[in-house]
Amino acid sequence: MADETPVAKAINPALEIGASGLIHSGGIIQNDFLKSLQGRKGEAIYREMAENDPVIGAVLLAIEMLFRSVDWSVEPSDSDDQAAIDQAEFVASCMTDMSTSWAETISSVLSMLPQGYSYHEVVYKRRNGWQEDGSRSKHNDGKFGWRKIPSRSHGTLTEWKFDSTGGIEGARQVDMTTGIDVFLPIEKCLLFRTTTKLNNPLGRSVLRSAYTSWYYGKRIQEIEAIGVERDLAGLPVAGVPPELLAANATDDQAAALDAIKDIVTNIRRDEQDGLVFPLAYDENGNKLYSIELMSTGGRRQLDTNQILARYDARKAMTVLADFILLGHEKVGTQALSVSKIELFEDAIDAWLQSIADVFTTHAIPKLLRLNGVSPELSPSLAYSSARTPNLEQLIKFVQAGVTSGAIIPDDELDTYLRGVAGLPVTEDAEVG
């Protein structure tokens, strides 16, 4: 019996056949199912959430403060190879030789959190000391270094360009001030994203899941503010002759009605409030026109405080930062607070790692290539953890370890514990 098994054609293993599934048209990403969060409109909403919401603003500030407390370093590819060590020292010197400090550079990268991504152009310079043309460097070795790594504003990036397999080729930028239209290739830039899912250059805003809570919370506060204003001032109610409301009202009658509507809708209580209204009566002595200010006496059918508190908690939960609300609520224990903070710090570490990976994978190798250095000597960017050790637990652990003989106290341990506790470190520590 002949073999009926079909013979597979030879396929180039390096050939990419499928696609990521990212939805985009004309360089505009359309992957969010809510159209209101796509494009420029979505960027504007995320900016409003970050800059105008007190809870979200507090969370983002807490994240930035933790990022600023992190120490950055450069680790050689081989700690036993002097050439690798030299390249690590060179990259470290470039980090402190930019026109913008490293801390400010990292802070600008953090815009990837509310927007989902951050796009930065890498600008190089020759390290030729202080020159008359304005170029400045602490070093005079003639090597290429980083001049600055500025972000390119989200609102100016008009479209993204992809290759045939969905790879990102770069972004087009239109300067809103000058109108200059330029293309920023990915080879000259760094793209930081909260997620690389579907190779979406926009990533995913950490505020995305907070949008619904923010939207309804904002609407409730707006309605509440209008209600309070109206309640304090009174709800304006005007009485007019029936003919002004008739379908066959004359132009003069319609104009009079419009004028009264303007009066009613524009009543505001301030130091100059007042109202002038026509005093007119019919043949029976009844007022043809009247206006009243009705008030509910400050009573509300719903407790908006509870509703807004629920929305605030949900907004903080989306970025694992609901611990910031524990002090404002009647529930929550110290142990729970510590656990939530540790989880939040773990999230910070994950974002730190993603930033370090971009520099290690793209920025540093490109810098070394410009200087004719082998990629094998390319170092990696490292950072200190944002996690703050629990001193009480750490001390108990060390005590138990020393008592059992599992830990032997020495100068190195003494220095570490003093550093964690913020205590002065003695040069000649005596461990007893």
Describe the structure.
- With 432 residues, the chain is α+β, with helices and mostly antiparallel strands.
- The chain folds into three domains: 19-207 and 319-388, no CATH class; 235-294, no CATH class; 391-432, no CATH class.
- 39% of the residues lie in helices and 14% in strands.
- The protein has eleven helices and 13 strands.
- It has helices spanning 39-52, 54-68, 82-95, 102-109, 112-115, 211-233, 251-265, 304-317, 334-370, 391-404, 411-421, and strands at 24-25, 28-29, 72-75, 117-121, 123-126, 144-148, 157-162, 168-174, 181-185, 189-193, 235-239, 290-294, 380-383.
- The strands form six sheets. It has a three-stranded antiparallel beta sheet, with no helix packed on it. It has a two-stranded antiparallel sheet with strand order 1-2.
- β8 (168-174) and β9 (181-185) form a beta hairpin.
- α1 (39-52) packs across α2 and α6 packs antiparallel against α8 (304-317).
- The protein is elongated.
- It starts with 23 loop residues before the first strand and ends in an 11-residue tail after the last helix.
- The mean pLDDT is 84.
